[in-house]
Amino acid sequence: MKTIPSCAVLLLAALTGTAQAAECPVLLQGELPRLRAKDSIDLCERFAGKPLLVVNTASYCGFAPQFKGLEALYQEYRAQGLEVLGVPSNDFRQEDADSAKTAEVCYVNYGVTFTMTEPQAVSGDRAIPLFRELAEQSGPPRWNFYKYVVDRQGKVVASFSSRTKPDSEQLRAAIEQAIASRP
User: What is the Cα–Cα distance from 80 to 136, expressed in whole angstroms?
Assistant: First the structure.
């Protein structure tokens, strides 16, 4: 008799897990290691139902000063639910092999408080699933500091080149559109 309730519990747990996975947009399925930390970021748990700005970054890129503007956007819009995810990458050969140096650039030099991952592949065949899905919905990043604005349903509403500054009216309009979207 004890096996029936435990089987029912296992079945319920499996169905609940499946339901949760079904509710999570494809874009947010998976985990990424947090920059210079021992834990990982469960993308669905952390970002599902929230407007999101995803940016592939590089410490030694000429666009690195955009970190300050990205942080300012995060501070301005986070009370409205905006999340920012920075994903360092050496795909364009401008990121340090030592993630401690990457962390120093982000956290010390630019005062970043938004979520950052360990360096990842963001383009081509080796791109992580997050960037494969971003590319499928909008196109692959052509350089560092390519920006993707994602609505609360996990759909890309707009993407912007590296040349688009964080204080751009078009970027701000896309972020406001994502914030206004329904979960």
Answer: 27
